């Protein structure tokens, strides 16, 4: 009987997997009818197989879950970056709309302090103090000297007479430009008025950030 059990148990794997020959299958089935130990061995084999299948299924589901988590994280990060990019561009464009237009007022050398104060007051009332910057003749000359620092010989001709003009620069919205130009008409002390628009919204934004 022991020998038959050994033969049957050797064939159990093939029998369980369904790959045993007909004769082997018949031998195993006949033996199982009379042998409790071999029937138990077959039941244990089935339990082990079920456990193995369950563990493989758990592992598979775990891998799927990890992949879904990774995809979710990547999606959230991508959406966050896209949102920041869109909001950043909208802010830069808004900043350009607010500060991309510039009016430069060149003042006459003979302008009086009263005339200068009158121009500044009108502009502050119209645009706000933070939109206006004043550069005197002396400041304009010093700025040029700073640019040519180390090349003082080029500045010798300016030693006796300052050829630069005092200016007032205004940052305005496009729709305010005509209104301000009309306000400046016929004001005493103004030599020339020029208007220009920044070509690149991003350069305009960086320039304003550096100034602040």
What is the topology?
Layout: H1 2-17, H2 22-34, H3 36-99, E1 101-107, H4 113-127, E2 132-135, H5 137-147, E3 167-172, H6 177-184, E4 190-197, H7 201-211
Antiparallel strand pairs: 1-3, 1-4, 2-3
Helix pairs in contact: 1-2, 1-3, 2-3, 3-7
Give a concise summary.
With 212 residues, the chain is of the alpha+beta class.
Unreliable parts: none
Helix % is: 55-70%
Q: H/E order of the elements?
A: HHHEHEHEHEH
Strand content: 5-15%
Q: What is the residue-mean pLDDT, rounded to a whole number?
A: 76
Task: Write a structural description.
With 212 residues, the chain is an alpha+beta fold. Helix content is 65%, strand content 12%. It has seven helices and four strands. It has a four-stranded antiparallel beta sheet. α1 packs across α2 and α2 crosses α3. It is rod-shaped. The model has no long low-confidence stretch (mean pLDDT 76).
Highlighted features:
single chain, 212 residues, alpha+beta, four-stranded antiparallel β-sheet
